[in-house]
Amino acid sequence: MQNIVIIGAGMAAGRLIDHLLEEGQWNITLFNAEPRGTYNRLMLSPVLSGEKTFGDIVTHDDDFYKKHEIACRFGERVVAIDRSAKIVTGENGDVPYDKLVIATGSTPFIIPMPGHDLEGVLPYRDLEDTEAMMNLASGKKAIVIGGGLLGLEAAAGMQMRGVDVTVVHLMGHLMERQLDPAAGFLLRKELTDRGITVLCSTNSKEILGENGKVKALKLDDGTELPCDLLCMAVGIRPSTALGAECGLDVGRGIKVDGQMVTSDPDVLSIGECVEHDGAIFGLVAPLYEQAKVAAQTLLGKEAQFVNKETATKLKVTGCDLFSAGDFADNENREEIVFRDPATCSYKRLVIEGNRLVGAVMYGDTGDGPWFHGLIKDRTNISDMRDTLIFGPNFQGGAPLEALGGHCSLAG
Amino acid sequence: MTDTIRSTCPYCGVGCGVLLTPQGNGALKVEGDPEHPANYGRLCSKGLALGDTVSLDGRLLAPKVDGKTAKWDDALQLVADKFKDTIAEHGPDSVAFYVSGQLLTEDYYVANKLMKGFIGSANIDTNSRLCMASTVAGHKRAFGTDTVPGTYEDLELADLVVLVGSNLAWCHPVLYQRLAAARAKRGTKVVVVDPRRTSTCDIADLHLKLAPGGDAALFNGLLAHLADQGEIDAEFVSQHVNGFDAALETARAEDLSLTGLTEADLATFYDMFTKTKKTVTVFSQGINQSSSGTEKVNSIINCHLATGRIGLPGSGPFSVTGQPNAMGGRETGGLANMLAAHLDLENAQHRDAVKSFWNAPEMPEAAGLKAVDMFDALAAGKIKALWVACTNPVISLPNANLVEEAIKNCPFTVVSDLSDQTDTARLADVVLPALGWGEKSGTVTNSDRTISRQRMALAHPGEARPDWEIFSEVGRRMGWEEAFDYRNEAQIFREHAALSKVAGDFGKDFDISALSDISDEDFDGFEPQKWPITAAREGGRFFADGKFFTPTGKANMLAVNARAPQAELDEEYPLRLNTGRQRDQWHTMTRTGRSSKLSKHLAEPFLQINPEDALACGLKDADLAVVKGRAGEAIFRVWITEDVAKGSPFVPIHWTCQTAAASTVSKIIPAIVDPFSGQPESKSAAVNITKFTADWYAFAISANAFETTSDYWAKVPAEGGWRAEMAGSGELDWQAYSQELFGTLKEPMVMVDQSTGLHRLAFFEDGKLSAALFVSPEPVAVAREYVIGLLGSDAINVLAARPGQDVKDPGPTVCSCMNVGRNQILDAIPVEGGATVDLIGELTGAGTNCGSCRAEVAQLIAQHSPRMAAE
User: Residue limits of the 4Fe-4S Mo/W bis-MGD-type domain (chain B) (predicted)?
Assistant: First the structure.
C-alpha cells in the first residue's frame, strides 16, 4: 500500500482524497495547519452573515477520516521536506512518503502599510478570521479594504450582523476583475442601498491604532475613518514556501505539469499554491479539476489538466451576480448588453468571432451556467445571436417575421 | 336593454343589412341582418368590426374656420357669402362641389339640387368617378340609361360566373360567400379574369392571367367565337339590338394576343361561355379604372346582348360597385354629366322638366367638370371656391401631388367631414363637422338596385350635423330659402321619389314614384326594396323583354377595340403598376383604420412583386422599395410572390399621410382618364422600382398614440395600443430617440448589440409594458403579434422579440374575426394530409365567422399540406 502524504486540507485536498478513495488502497497522512479537516471555505460568508453554521459547511468530518483510516495531523505545521529521503517532517515528527501532494493553498496578502500588524487587522481566509468578524458587536464600525469578491462578502456579512461597514476600494468600480463598470455600478448601488458605505478609487495610507489596537484608517487624502476592525481582502498569494525550501521549481506558484507533477516526479501539487502554464488559480472549479487529475496521476492513469474558463458567483444574499470567461475590452471583441433599470438587472456578453468568450450578469443570473457552458464548449453562437442574451428558453423556434404585418400568405 | 336598430353597412356596394345594438356607452354591437336580401345575415370582417370604428377619437365636434373653432352660424354664413361672392364675380362655373359615394341619397340629392338647380353649374362630381363612371357610361351607351339589369340572386342561379377585374373575395366578400355557397351546392363554374392571382381564385375553375388592358380583346374574341359557334340569339338581336354587325366585324378583327393568354386558355373560356346559357359576367374596378374602361364595359355587354343573356334569372352583365351609395349618387344625378333621376343634363326637355320641378332659377346646359378635370381647373385657378364633402381627394385622386397643391392654392375650400385631420381637411379654410355612419339617417342603394335605410343608432356627437342639413343651410343663406327648407330626410326622399316620376314619364328606368308620398313613419320603417317602385312595377330584372331606354328602344352593341393602358412603358418606367384593395381595409382607412382587429391582417403598405422583377430590381422579401412613376413616388414593403405576373406589380390603395409617411399610391398615378367616362386609369401607371436604402429599420409598439417622423413609417392601431413600421437614415441615440417617440423621460429597458446594429428598448409604467422599439440595420425580425400581446403585461423578456420555447407565437393574423394566426393554422394542418378549410375551421375557429379569410386558409393548406404519397 502506497504512502501518500498530503500537506494541506483545503478544498482541493478534500476533493483529491474523495477521488483517491474511489479506487485503490492508500495509506494517507493529512497535514493541516488549521486545527480541522476540510470544510467549504467558499461558504464562510453565509456563516459570517449568520445564514449558515460552521457545521453546515464541513465536508469531511472526524467520522469520515476515522472510517477511511486517514492519519490526521491537524493543527500541525510541516517544517521540512526531505525529497531524497522522501520524508516529511512535521512539528510532531516525520512521515515517510511514496508520493507527496503539496496543497498548501494561498496566503492572504496583507498590504505592508503602517499599522498592518495592529490587533483587529485581519484577512478573510479561515474560520478564525470569520469568527473574529462574527464577534464584532452590532453598532461597531468595520472597514474592509478591497472591493473584490471576498471583501464584499465580508462587508455584507458584517453588515447583516448590524455592523457599520465601509468598503475602501482602490479601483474605479467594485469587483473589477469580474465585472465591467456598469455591473460594478449596480452592485455598488445595491450595497449602498442596504447601508454599506462604498468608497471606490480610494487609496489607504495608514492604519492608526491605540494601545496596539486598530482605531482608524487614514486615507491618502488625509481623511480618517474610525473603525473597530479592519479586514484586508486585497488578494492572495500562492503559499510556495515549503516547495521553494525543498528545492522544487517555483515561479509565482509551485510549477506543475499537466499531470499536476512538480519538478520532482514523486511530488505533486494542487490548488491555489500551484502555477500551471503560467497561470495561478483562485476559483474552486479548476482546483477540483486539478484534484481529479492528480488522483488519476497517482493511480498511474493518463490525465491532463486543462485550464477551462471559470465562472464566479458572489455569495451575498440579494446580490445576484455572475461572471464567467474573459470580458476585457479588445478590438476584436463585440458585446451584447441588456439592462433593465426597473429591476436593476444587467447582462453583458462578450463575443469574439462566432463565440461567446465572456458573460457578466447582475440581477437575473439564472442563465449563468448556460452561458458558462457556451464559453467552455466554444459553441458557435452566430445563429442565436439575436436572442442569445435572453438565454436558452429563447433559442430555436420558428424564424421570426421580418415582413411587416403581411406575411400571412408568404412562404 | 336597448333596442336593436336595422341599418346598412357603410362599406362596399354589396349593401349588407346590419343589426345595431347600442351598448349605452357609445359602443355599438354589430351583427348581420338575417332578413336583408343582400346578405341574409352574413357580414364580412370589415362589417363585423364596425363597432370598433365608431369611437369619437379624433372627431371634429364643432366647425373650424382657419383652424379655429367657430360658431355654426358664422361658419355657414362665411361659406354662403364666399360662394355667392365668387359666383357673382366669376360666374357659377367658378365654384365646385366634390362629394362622395358614401353620402346618403338625401345628402346627394340636396347637394346636386343646390349646384345644378340654384348655383347653376354642373360642377358637382364625386369620388364615384374613380369607381364606376365607366360602367355608367357603358350602361348609358348600351341601354340608354345607367341600369344594372340583374340582381344578386343571379349569381346563385347562374351556371357560369365570370369575374372580370374583380377580387370579389376581398372587395365584396359577402357576394363572394354567396357565390361560393352556390358553387358548393350546385357546381357553378367560376372563371376569374385578373392579371393577379387573388384570393378569389380559390373558387375559380379557370383563372385567366390577363395582360393589363386585354379585357376588350378577350370579349371581342368571345363575341367572334359565339358567332362562329352559332350561339348568337338572332331573334333577340334582330328585334332588340342595334349595331350587331359593326360590333362583330370589329371583334373579328381584334388582335387576341393583347390578352396575353394562351390559345388553350382562350379556347377553354370561350367554350365554357358558349355552352353555358346561364352566365353572369361580374365586373368591377379592373374594368372601370382604365383609360378604355367604357369600351371594356361595352365589350362585355356586347356578348350578353348578342346571346340574349340579359335580364334573365342567372344571366346578365353585372357591375358591382365599390361604395355603399355609388348607386344612390347615380340616381340623384350627383355626377357632373348627369342631371337627376337618370335624366340627361344635355337633353333640353329633361332639363326643363327638372327645372320646373325644382322651380329652379337657372340650369347648366352642359356637363360640368369631372373629377380629374375639376382639380385641373382648380390648379389652373378657374375654380375659386371648392366644397369637399365626405371624401379625401388628396389621397384618392391621381396625380395627388398636384391635387394637394391645387387645394392649397384655392382661395376658399370647405370640407365637411368627420375629422379635420384628413389629408384634405388639413388644407381647408372651413371644416364643418358632419355626422358619420351610425349617427345619420337616410337611404342608400346597393349594386343590385336595392334601396335600404341607414338608421341612426348613436347620438349626434358635439355639434355635428347631417350633410343634407349643412348643404340646405348654405342654400338658404345663399337666398333660396324655400327650395332648401328641409326638415328631415323623409321630406327629401319624398321629393327625390316625386322627381323620379318625371323620369318615369320620360320612359326612363329610375322611377320610385310610388314612394312620393311615403309618410315619415313609413320612411322610418322602410324595408329594403329594389327599384323600380311604381304603381305598375316593383323590383325585378330589366331588359328580358327587349325594351331598352334608348330613343329607338333597342339596345346598342358598340364596335369597340382593345386599347393598351395609356401610360407608356419605356426604359425608365418599365413596369405596369396594378392597384387595389386589401381584405380588411377600406378606402383611406378613416374607418377601418380605427380597428385594431382589421389592422392586423396586412398592417403595412406592401408591394407584391413577381420574383423575376424582384431579382431585376435588386429586392428581397421585406425590403422597402420606392415605386416611382412619372407623377410621383411612394414607398412600400416588398412581398415577393408568384401571384402577380412579371412586369405587373401590385400595391394597395389605402394608405394616407395619416397612416403612412410616404405610401400614397395616388401620387404615382398619372391623371390619364377614359375619354367617355372621365374615370382615371388607376391600375396601370408606368413605374420603376428601386430599393429604398435605409440605415435602420424599426418596429414600434405603444399603449399610447405616438407621432412618427422617420423617412418611412406606417402606423395602425393594435390591440391595446398602436404599432408602427419605421425606417430611416443616420446614426441615432436610440434611448433619446425612443424617449421622444413615445413621449416619456423614463429610462428604458435596453438590449444593444452594437456591432450588428441591433437596438431594442422597452418602457414600463407601473411594471407593465407601455412601449417598445425594435431597431435593426435589416428589416426587423420580430414576432409582431406576440410582442403586441405583451402590452400592458410584465413582459420581462419582451426584448427577446419572440416568445420563449414555452410560449407559442400565433403568427400574423389570417382570420380577423376569430383572431387566428398563420402559425396556428399551419400547426392545425394534419401531417397525414386531408386538411380542408372546414377542418381547420373546426380546429382553430379560422373562417368560421364571416368567412372572409377562407380563401387564404385554403391557400395555406395548398402550400403546406403534405403531398400525397406517390404510389
Answer: 2-58
